[in-house]
Amino acid sequence: MSKWPEALGERKVESYRKGIEDLPPLPNDSKYEVMTLRFAPNPDFVLHLGSARPAIINYAYKLKYEGLGKKVKFILRFEDTDPRTKRPLPEAYEAIKEDLRWLGIKWDEEYVQSDRMGIYYEIAKKILERGGAYVAAKGSDCTPDDWKRSKVTGKPCKNRDADPSINLELFDRMLEGRYKEGEAVMVIKTNLQHPDPSVRDWVAMRIIDTTKYPHPRVGSRYIVWPTYNFSVSIDDHLMGITHILRAQEHSVNTTKQSFVYTHMGWEQPEAIHFGRLKIVGMTLSKTKLKALGIKWDDIRLPTLAGLRNRGIQPEAIWNIILQVGIKPTDATISSANLFAENRKIIEPRANRYMAVIDPVKVIIEGVNEELTARLPMHPSFPDRGFREITLKSIDSKVTVFISKLDYEKAGIGSVIRLMELMNIEVINKDGNTLIARIHSKDLESAKRVNAPIIQWVPPDGLSIRVVRPENLRLINDVGLAEPAVEQVTSGEIVQFMRYGFVKKIERDRFVYVHD
RNA sequence: GCCCCGGUAGUAUAGCCCGGUCAAGUAUGUGGGCCUUUCGAGCCCGUGACCCGGGUUCAAAUCCCGGCCGGGGCACCA
């Protein structure tokens, strides 16, 4: 593929188009004047590769349809209606927005569900008035236990068919704080005979003791909270969402939510479900990731922040997500796949440097002159220039360092080419030092004897440390790098030749991106 | 237990709706070669798949049935 040279410059949104064109059209796309899509994360954690999928797919559709001249709105909505079991993380609201910006995703409107409690109460009352819901409450004709039993027996409990005024009154009592957790719920009337028991008369409003579990944003102001299915139905309608693209785990929720739409006389939005994304060797379970006790932007984690810190480019994530597409099947991608995408992007950008891990000293005899190596910053782009490394000869000897791996492979009597410098013949190895003599200087001579070509570092090299994540462990590679590495700016990704791509984080510290 | 969805190479995906152009495309992986002196980069060549069994049809990866396997969800999480 020769598309990379041109990709060297700034990559704009246009470069995403390839995958976007391949996206299948959305159902009834022509029916809507304006299409409205949304991304609705729970701010109980930051975004990771799995949650990036709905964000990217929704946004990709926005770009796709805008490219076709359609008006498309993209809404960001934080779904934080459970202060108890999915407690929002206060920092997550901003961190998620940061993740989205990094992905190049812009939103037209932003909402936080915990700011909208009044709206949910209002709709709850309306749906009660319309007889689309009822309250099961302790001390009433339908206790929470009665309601639960009715789902098994199929026989409705009293309040289900009672006059709306009774249920409205019970709901007011809920709001007044007369009930404790578990003592009262508002449930949506669905179908007590529905084959899926979880669809039968599901809970729309429940009590959460916010003195015990204060909400990070609204504290203990509310004790009656909407469940996911209720608040989502309301918001999707009120925000005019036309197409809901979400993971397959939500398919039953579409069924449940349809009852709210029916009771309220609202038009159903189009729902599309895609499979889950898994990555081999890494968990994408938020619960499990949190349980690790590692900060969410750690380079070991598949969070967007972790991947970002590790040197993965947002384009690589886009590419992988668009490649996987919107199939309803689960997709298991390998990190090799993600790294391959990333490599395509960073390979032309990353300048090349020499570094050796676990340095071993090499003394080369028979060198009577000063030697200078001229190394291109990037072999494919000579216009990026060169830097020179000069080695002084003392008593006809010069000293360099090579990596232990190369030292171990060097047999006595063999010839090795030190990149751009000279060819040496190994005389002796004593475990700590390699003694060699100059064999020749030109590449041709090295090729004739099939000499390996390796990188090396002069004695005035810079001590470096590269942190390399391996599953959940962090491995520290220590070594030496050529002096020019000091000029690399922090945050820049370069390639340490024959080692891998690294990202500079401090003067002498690097993160291993991948090979 | 109950409900939903799906099964194309090692992995991921295209094709399936509207059956023939699919002896199945692409990416990654893998094998080999080339390469202006890095490489695990690039370039070139190769490798490798339609879950199984029936049926419909002149013709099935594509439609129907059964089986097997996998995934997801579930009753006051989102």
Describe this structure in words.
The protein is of the alpha/beta class and 515 residues long. It folds into three domains: 5-115 and 232-345, HUPs (Rossmann fold), CATH 3.40.50; 117-225, Glutamyl-tRNA Synthetase, Domain 3 (Glutamyl-tRNA Synthetase, domain 3, Alpha-Beta Complex); 351-407 and 455-515, Ribosomal Protein L25, Chain P, CATH 2.40.240.100. It is 28% helix and 27% strand. Strands 12-24-25-26-22-23-13 form a seven-stranded mixed β-sheet. Strands 17-14-20-19-18-21 form a six-stranded mixed β-sheet. A four-stranded antiparallel β-sheet has the order 4-5-6-7, sandwiched between helices. The longest helix has 19 residues, at 49-67. It is elongated and about 105 Å long. It binds one RNA strand of 78 nucleotides through helix 5, strand 5, strand 6, helix 7 and helix 8.
Walk me through the topology.
Elements: H1 17-21, E1 34-39, H2 49-67, E2 71-78, H3 92-102, E3 109-112, H4 117-129, E4 133-137, H5 144-153, H6 164-176, E5 184-188, E6 203-207, E7 224-226, H7 228-238, E8 243-247, H8 251-264, E9 270-274, E10 277-279, H9 286-291, H10 304-310, H11 314-324, E11 331-333, H12 335-346, E12 352-353, E13 355-357, E14 359-365, E15 371-376, E16 386-391, E17 397-403, H13 404-409, E18 415-418, E19 422-429, E20 433-440, H14 443-448, E21 453-454, E22 462-470, E23 473-481, E24 493-496, E25 500-506, E26 509-514
Parallel strand pairs: 1-2, 2-3, 8-9, 10-11, 12-24, 14-20, 18-21, 22-26
Antiparallel strand pairs: 4-5, 5-6, 6-7, 13-23, 14-17, 15-16, 18-19, 19-20, 22-23, 24-25, 25-26
Helix pairs in contact: 2-11, 7-8, 11-12
The chain binds one RNA strand of 78 nucleotides through α5, β5, β6, α7 and α8.
